[in-house]
Amino acid sequence: MSDESPAGYAGLWLPPERDPRPNRSTPDGELATYRDYLRQYRLTLELKCQDLTPEQLATASVPPSNLSLLGLVRHMAAVEDGWFVRVLQGQWDRPRMYRSESDHDLDFNGAAGTEECRDDAFATWHRVITNAETWLGTRSDDSLGERVRLPDGGESASVRDILVHLIEEYARHCGHADLLRECIDGRTGL
């Protein structure tokens, strides 16, 4: 990627015509809107990771935090798997990703700066996204009010609430990704 910014777009990595995210036209329907926001944030996180080495991706560049871009990819894979598979699809016996009895933060603590770890993290994240999109393809606006049991066993939430939470989770972590990337190589924007 070039460090040159198009006129009027100082700080952006890509000119708008090369941005892979879809045009922000308003989709029809509530579910389509949620899916569009998820797609936008997923692509934004992916773009924040673009053109970095495995070591750079695994760098916790904002001390004392253990957050890294690779850790965020692993974390979002675990988050989407937890909500879309365990909660929304009711597969409670499925083990949580990147978690052990002794370390509940393996998504970040296990984010090693190796090609193998990077490739596995992105493949896992993409697989989880494909599963989530497949499941979302079976839903309609009318199904968003359905309630599902939450992990604590006593509470429930609507599908709508869970989708809004996922959008919020991506939005927060894309903000973290902004800072992490800027501290790694000075890149800002998107």
Automatic annotation (TrEMBL):
Domain of life per record: Bacteria
One matching Pfam family: MST
Region spans: Disordered: 1-30
Signal peptide region: none
InterPro entries: DinB/YfiT-like (IPR034660), MST-like (IPR007061)
Gene3D superfamilies noted in UniProt: dinb family like domain
Name the record gives this protein: DinB family protein
